[in-house]
Amino acid sequence: MKIKTRSKPLPLRKLDVITPRLSPHFPRLPEMKEDAKKQGRGYSGETKVDYHLEILASRYTLLDDVYLHNNGKNFQVDSLIAANHAIFIVEAKNYMGTIIFDSILKQLTRNDGKIESGFEYPITQAKNQKFHLQNWLLKHQLAHIPIYYFIAIADPSTIIKVDGNREEISKVVAHASRIPGMIIEKDQELAQAGNAKLHDYRIGKIILRECGVYDMNIMEQYGLTCRNLLPGVFCPGCGKRGMKRIHGGWICPKCRHKSHHAHIKEIHDYLLLYGSITNTECMWLLRLTSRSTATRILQKSGLLYLNGRKCWIKRT
Ligand SMILES: [Zn+2]
């Protein structure tokens, strides 16, 4: 059974909200767009791997995107499978072209047909995660559980090559479609070796209870202040910013598209970045001239008003 599902990572959601609101001349905009692209590629790879791992949900306990805290440090695992005799961690990797695992120098290179680039060695990364998880389990009286890791190559068209020990690499690296079979096989091997049967659901629940959410202060990360953000309502029709308020809705001066609810997304995006919104902030965000319109919009938006702080927040 899957007890934790994946959603789009918060830093990526925030980048998606911020970048369209920045002036095209903002110096770090290209870097932000590149980071968003990279994170988006990672997320897409993880969801592709999820699709293949799903088959294990009928026999084991699955958790996507596990983010835990141990000894003052956080660590993250793309997919965690509490099986009958071990915990399996799966790291998703989304590369285009050909990748070469150098088992001697412990490095990964990728050739996309044009350029060769180097990446952090995924096996070292997975080993570190295993080490962190082992320490975490020790702290939670679960030190008896063995942990194994796999690197799932998300895209079936990625060509995997090895420089060095092919056998060693092929034991832990494979295209995503092969990973469930490798997990089942290892789990059965452990059963035959006489390993104790685990309460996988109970273990999964203990991990779930301690899971946090990975977040980042994007504004600080890219040296942004709210002054860098441009206000206005985006048109759902043509994507341009600057819809005008008309009676009971919005109209786009560029494509004449009309919308009743275009402001809802803007308010929710603002809450994603700042956590709360005041009447004045709402007027700025939606470029409203009337205070009472802002109040009316906020009252109808299903948010919760905090009297003491004079602002609106999301209902939980
Ligand atoms: Zn438009």
Key features of this structure:
316 residues; binds zinc ion; globular; 2 domains; six-stranded mixed sheet; four-stranded mixed sheet; alpha/beta
Overview of this protein structure:
With 316 residues, the protein is of the alpha/beta class. The protein folds into 2 domains: 2-210, no CATH class; 231-313, no CATH class. The protein contains 10 helices and 15 strands. Zinc ion is lined by residues 235, 237-238, 240, 252, 254-255, 257.
How are the SSEs ordered, and which strands pair?
Layout: E1 2-4, H1 10-18, H2 29-53, E2 61-70, E3 73-82, E4 87-93, E5 98-102, E6 107-111, E7 116-119, H3 122-139, E8 147-153, E9 159-163, H4 166-170, E10 173-175, H5 179-192, H6 200-210, H7 218-221, E11 244-246, E12 249-251, E13 258-259, H8 262-274, H9 279-286, H10 291-299, E14 304-306, E15 311-313
Parallel strand pairs: 1-2, 4-8, 5-9, 8-10
Antiparallel strand pairs: 2-3, 3-4, 5-6, 6-7, 11-12, 12-13, 14-15
The protein binds zinc ion.
The site of zinc ion has 8 residues, from loops.
